[in-house]
Structures are given as C-alpha cells and as structure tokens.
Amino acid sequence: LFRSTQKSKWVELSEKEVHQITQLLGSGENPYTIMWKGRLALVKGDRDSAVRQMYTAYDKLVLAQKSASGSTGAIDRQLGQLAYTLAKMYMQTNETGAISKFLATAINNGIYYSKPDVLLDYVDISLALRRWSTAVNTVDFFERYYSPTDRSKQARLRANIGARLLDQAQEELAAMDADDPNVMVLSLELNQTKIVQTLQEMARLEGQGKRTGTEDSSYGALKAELQQLRAEQGKLLDRLFKTSPDSVSGSMILSLSRYYM
Question: How many angstroms separate the Cα of 198 from the Cα of each of 118, 187, 195, 216?
Fold first, then answer.
C-alpha cells in the first residue's frame, strides 16, 4: 500500500512537471514536449506508449541536430539522456542494432561525463555485433579518461580474440587473475579460437596435399598442437565447472563431454 501511494504521488508530481514544461514549450509537435510525455508514460507504467513517444522525439532531435550544421550539431544533453534511456529499455530485447545506435547517440552527446560505464555498454554491444576495432577504440577512450577496470580489460581481451590477435590476447590474459571465473571463461574462448584456427590451417594443408599429392611437413606438428589444445580445453572446462558451475554454458558442457568421450 505504501509503495502504491508513493508511486501515485510520483505520478502526480510528474504530471504537474510535464504540464508546466508543455506550457513553456508550446506545440505538442515540439520534440522535447513529446519526450517528456513519453517519460510521463514510463512513470505511469505504460511502456509501449513511452517507447513510441520517446522514439518519435529521438528521431526529431537527431534530425534537428544534424540539420544544425549539416552533419552533427552541438551536444544536446537532453538527447543524450533520452538516447541512453531508450538504449536501456531496448536492452530487454534482441535488437542489438538499435541499442548500438542509441548508445552511440548518447555517447556523442556527452552522457559518459556522468555515466562512464555507458562506454563499456557500447563495447559490449560492439562485441555482440563483431565490430572488433570499434570495441578496442572505445576501450582505449574509456581507459584514457578513466582508470582501467576488470571489465574494460576483459572487454579488450575479448575484442582481440574476436579480431584474431591471439598473441596480444595471450599477453593480456597472462596479466589477469587466473582464479577469476570470468578470466577462466576468457581462457576457454581464447583456447577455442586457437583450436578453430588450427583446424582451419590443417584443412587448408589437407586440400593442398590432395592437389599436389604430398603432405606438408608442418601438418604433423599442427595435429600434435591440436591434441594439446583439446586437452587444455578439457582441463580448463573441468576447472571452471568445479570453481564456478553457474559460469558453464550448455555449449561448454558439450565440448567437455566430447573431450572425455
């Protein structure tokens, strides 16, 4: 009952504030008016209406910003906050492209001054979209202006694995806490990438051997390396399972079962 009464008071206060803003801004077509009406809908719990109105306001403000100078206008803090709010709401969906767009707009409008972690949110989305260089550049920006964190270091490592910069990734991994379950997962990702890379090279040599009728001298070494990597993968998976069972995914369990078969 207390929470319900408290929410009613918040809604009442928000309605008054939005009414005053609407009076000041005038036309209902004003993007800031639409934005605040969307925020009010969100407070009331009408998520669909909130998203619809805030998205409309977002489009209008982005267009106005671009038109201001032909490319990108001055920083609009309200647009930055609006884009950030939309990004957070869309994170409940699988629309990674939209999330990336909103986060980029939020960052370009200075949201990271008050919310530095938005940069790492953008890194995570870039990784999901396989935009490795964007992820690394954003981590560089974050660590240049803020202290490096476990999250930023791990994101950089994941980006380098994705970009197949495996030697660099191995160096970064060596500097991390090997007992951290997140680091164990990264070790598995790096090792799995090495396995895939080795299998691809072996397949290339097999194809070459069929064409020439000879076996490349490095094929045997690659085969031995593959066995070693698979053994290491089994050990890493077993260790992670014992240390942090919740960190083990279904695909990891399948990989571990294949190792012991």
Answer: 36, 16, 5, 14
